[in-house]
Amino acid sequence: MGVSALVAEEVQGAPAQAHLDKTTADWGLHRLADGIDQKDADTPDNWIPRHPKILRLTGRHPLNCESPLDLLLGAGFVTPVSLHLVRNHGAVPKLDWKTHRIEVGGLVNNPVSMSMDELVKFPSITIPVTVTCAGNRRKEENMIKKSIGFNWGPGSTSCTYWTGVRLCDILKHAGVKSPDQGAHFVCYRGPKGELPKGEDGSYGTSVTLAAAMDPSNDILLAYKQNGRWLTPDHGFPVRMLIPGYIGGRMVKWLSEITVTKEESNNFYHYHDNRVLPPHVDAELAKEEGWWFKPDYIINELNIQSAAARPAHDEVVSLKHNKPYKIKGYSFTGGGRKVIRVEVSLDDGSSWRQATIHRFEKPNPYGKYWCWVFWDLTVETFDFTRCKEILVRAWDSSQNGQPAVITWNVMGMMNNCYFRIKIHPHTDASGNIGFRFQHPAPIELGKLGNMGWREEEHLRDEAIKTVTTEVAAVQAAAPKPPGSKNVYTMEEVSKHTTEESCWFIHNGKVYDGTSFLDDHPGGGDSILINGGLDATEEFDSIHSTKAKEMLKDYYIGDLQG
Amino acid sequence: MGVSALVAEEVQGAPAQAHLDKTTADWGLHRLADGIDQKDADTPDNWIPRHPKILRLTGRHPLNCESPLDLLLGAGFVTPVSLHLVRNHGAVPKLDWKTHRIEVGGLVNNPVSMSMDELVKFPSITIPVTVTCAGNRRKEENMIKKSIGFNWGPGSTSCTYWTGVRLCDILKHAGVKSPDQGAHFVCYRGPKGELPKGEDGSYGTSVTLAAAMDPSNDILLAYKQNGRWLTPDHGFPVRMLIPGYIGGRMVKWLSEITVTKEESNNFYHYHDNRVLPPHVDAELAKEEGWWFKPDYIINELNIQSAAARPAHDEVVSLKHNKPYKIKGYSFTGGGRKVIRVEVSLDDGSSWRQATIHRFEKPNPYGKYWCWVFWDLTVETFDFTRCKEILVRAWDSSQNGQPAVITWNVMGMMNNCYFRIKIHPHTDASGNIGFRFQHPAPIELGKLGNMGWREEEHLRDEAIKTVTTEVAAVQAAAPKPPGSKNVYTMEEVSKHTTEESCWFIHNGKVYDGTSFLDDHPGGGDSILINGGLDATEEFDSIHSTKAKEMLKDYYIGDLQG
Q: How far, in Å, CA of A527 to CA of B181, rounded?
């Protein structure tokens, strides 16, 4: 089956496909996720087909992924579901269309327990919406100082068609009470027992009743994506969808909706999706109660842009002066419109205006929910005296992107200028050109380079590491192979159970058994690495503080 | 009558006055505008009482004014009407409550011609709203490169109670048609023949029908301010009030409302209140049709902050280390909430969080329409190694202020960090302290200093001026007194009519008669300066280009 046919199959049922003509030609190597990826084989998610090209950001499990920028933007305005970012906090719940119910209660006159068959009988709408994780571009923040979140690149945004029933229709159906009667919030959550923390182990949050009842907001109980029933990773059989908000409010596997006087009291409502002021670190946040201060909740996305071309580690020859097309995406929140994308090749002294490609029409209330693509043609000659490409966008409220990062403890909402460094480069034959370097891509580039923020970070870390190593050498004499605290790989690989769970990190052996119950990410994510070298998975998700904690579980060194 | 009694009188009728307890104590020297200011004596506005302390930004007439920051913030959350910014494009129309009518037509089923007595019978609401000119802080932009607008300082924002009828109620009363029937915009305008440009000489603009019909937006036909009927400068008898939008959309002396398919075609709708990209100057804008590109319209305010203390030219002694309270205002648009105000004393490396004083409660839909005040106590010792105080704010959509200005041809929406320079200072007795310097205050400070952006600008201008003067000297030999082209003041003062209108600028005499009809600001604003020295008034409102045009009207030099 050709690419176009696959695309057509995936988006089947989505209306207003005319725009696809513009993009299908570029879909290149995409394909549907049609098999189980070997990376999932020994995880609880080993029943879910996933695309082999997604970038897994937290090891094999749970799945948190984005797609490489060139693949993502190459797919065009509508992202194939199999390439859409995924943010899972644990194993994907196995829910059944026939038995799943949504309980609607609280401050309503007619509490409802609704089956999926009942839900889909309500009038539905289908709209394209860009869904973005609030942690998009967090890796750049982590390279300045580790936040408590894992590394997202600039690809944790995607745009698909979503089909669902308006939340306001469901609330009206249940006889929602008025603000005068004390109804001010709509709380909602996924399945109970899904996650390690909070009273019932559910992931829950809330929006204001005013936002929920406002038809201009297009808040949906969504059950189809690109014309097909949801996949398990995207919330099968139903999820909340809130255009213009951060992805974190769009709870998947939606199970309960409760109208209340106060906002959600769910653990994750308070301990996730907040931007605290830059001086607040994890300890201070806890000590001074910052998680519970109402002003720091984040809902609407802010104005954002990033460039996919030049790609990280792309090389452009300087032999002849040629046109070069810089391109990328931009979006904003709250239904606002992206009105300007600008590129500077002189450190911000002057800005060239990019051409915006807008694929959606505003909703009847004038709101915009989707990313735009942009491009700007320069000449390769323009790069000769330019050390950096700067990209920034503006929205219809005249909000722009800041020139520099403001770090925050959750590493969220980073929307500083997207800066690509330009380096002189010669290839093996001595041809002169320029090499481009993104700030913090998830993967090494074709030439083996990391991002420039990562390089800067590593230089800083190297100094710290030397200090730490010296201290370690002084503290303990090296153990020769064969001595009591040196283990072979074979020995380590026997400890894979809840009774005894060992793992390796940077050539050292740790016994994580006693920490299984206390691990913030759940015991399962330690167990799946039991008996294995967990260096890469560990480093991708843990803070400096967590790394320091390792020493309490250190039992010896790996032989060799 | 004491100050409190005057305040009480001015705000009489405004509900929910409890917050005033916090602020009345500070109102200081305020008083109602209770007489005709001599500056207005020979202008068409010589019937309107105005406060003597307002800062007139475009000479005597028409009135465009803001209040000094200390007076404005000293007045507290609710600004006295007499200190509220005013933006007039020409003479204030003399309207009569008894005869004034609002015509409501276009795509409505029942066109209405409504008298004021009829209007005030509709249900009304009273809400506090911060009204801000989109040109607030424009003087900072003009100091980088002259925009086509006059110099506003940071005081072109004010907050009062407004009472009026919801626009959506009036539209419903007139049987407004639906978007399906082609209704998409609500156009509205002031009196015809008021202004020099456009088809009918009215000031008009439009908002989307969706925005107009959304009750959460609180758009009002406002007829009272702080509990009293509107004053002529604020739109008597009725004006449009759109919370969270720039002041430019809040048309005064409201005369006509028309529901339409397309946005307003009024001259000022297209040629005012736009932010064009930084590379577009006045010539390019005209040449390439930028005024008519829909994306560059501005409606919602962006996030803004400024500091009133330390004041410009304030001096702080360094004798003893003492607490010092930095304070100011902040606001944002679109109903968003100001959530953080931060101050840096180390060039942005770290930020201290100011305390926010919020006086309003959100409307039932969670929207905020008012400024907040903020303060942060530091120690005078903190200033010893600090060259600049930086202030920035963030709103609930995580939009912050940019570190640097992005110039635009209308000089609008400047919201870069508010930067106060700190200079070592000794007084006459040799006591050491620090002097503070605002970027671009409207008045010289107590010590005679201008703003730091102005100083930088003048350094640049000085170079240009020297070049120009040299050219002038080369072009024309100096004229001795008594020669044909040297005029006495007495002679000049005779030319004050439409038949012969001379004026003086920087010691040179100009004959403006032939330009009376073509003057973009109207012939009247030349005539009121006929026979006078117009240097100050001319410079405050004209662009570099306009100054260059002067040479075409030069007729000689002033004697002495």
A: 63
Helix (H/G/I), strand (E/B), else coil: A5:
helix
Which residues of B have a catalytic role annotated?
A: 133, 272-273
To the query of whether residue A180 is one of the catalytic residues in this protein, the response is no
Which positions ≥6 away from A209 have C-beta within 8 Å? A176, A179, A183, A184, A185, A186, A259
CA distances from B195 to B102, B190, B512 (A): 19, 10, 20
Report the residue of chain A nearest B362, measured CA to CA: A210
Q: Cα dist. A510→A533, A534, A554, B230 in Å? A: 10, 10, 4, 76
Report all structural domains of chain B as residue ranges with CATH numbers, in order of start. 3-87 (no CATH), 101-137+156-296 (3.90.420.10), 309-437 (2.60.40.650), 476-558 (3.10.120.10)
Peptide bond into A62 cis (omega under 30): yes
Locate A484 and state its tokens.
């009591």
> Which residue of B210, B275, B353 is in closest CB contact with A398?
B275
Residues of A with Cβ-Cβ distance to B298 under 8 angstroms? 398
Q: How far apart are CA A67 and CA A77, in angstroms?
A: 14
B303 lies within 8 A of chain A by CB: yes
**Alpha-carbon A503 to chain mean position:** 27
Six-digit token pair at A121?
């009988």
| Residue of A303, A339, A398 for testing the chain B interface, max B β-carbons within 10 Å | A398
B292 touches chain A (CB under 8 A): no
Give the residue among A343, A403, A354, A344 at the shortest CA–CA distance from A376.
A354
The CA distance from A210 to the nearest CA of chain B, in Å, is: 5
A273 counts as catalytic: yes
Question: In this prediction, does ipTM exceed 0.85?
Answer: no
**Which residues in chain B (405-424) have CB-CB distances under 8 A to chain A?**
406, 413, 415
| Closest in A210, A278, A303 to B364, CB measured | A210
Which residue type occupies B204?
Answer: G
pTM exceeds 0.90: no
Q: Is A133 a catalytic residue?
A: yes
- Cα distances (angstroms) measured from residue B39 to each of A425, B45, B59, B63, B542: 68, 10, 9, 10, 20
Q: Does A178 touch chain B (CB under 8 A)?
A: no
CB within 8 Å: A403 and B400: no
The 3-state DSSP class for residue B133 equals: coil
Give the count of alpha carbons within 13 A of A148, CB side only.
17
Note whether B348 contacts A: Cβ–Cβ < 8 A.
Answer: yes
pLDDT tens digits for chain B (560 residues)? 233 333 344 443 333 333 333 333 233 333 456 689 999 999 999 999 999 999 999 999 999 999 999 999 999 999 999 999 999 999 999 999 999 999 999 999 999 999 999 999 999 999 999 999 999 999 999 999 999 999 999 999 999 999 999 999 999 999 999 999 999 999 999 999 988 888 999 999 999 999 999 999 999 999 999 999 999 999 999 999 999 999 999 999 999 999 999 999 999 999 999 999 999 999 999 999 999 999 999 999 999 999 999 999 999 998 889 999 999 999 999 999 999 999 999 999 999 999 999 999 999 999 999 999 999 999 999 999 899 999 999 999 999 999 999 999 999 999 999 999 999 999 889 999 999 999 999 999 999 999 999 999 988 877 776 766 666 665 565 555 556 688 889 899 999 888 899 999 988 999 999 888 888 777 888 888 899 999 888 887 777 778 888 888 988 888 87
Residue A279, Cβ neighbours under 10 Å: how many? Answer: 14
Least Cα separation, residue B300 to chain A (angstroms): 5
Read off the tokens for B210: 């969706």
Q: Cβ contacts of residue A121 below 8 Å, gap of 6+?
A: none
Chain B positions touching A353 (Cβ under 8 A) are 277, 279
Is residue B402 within 8 angstroms of chain A, CB to CB?
Answer: yes
Which residue is associated with the tokens 């006929």?
B530
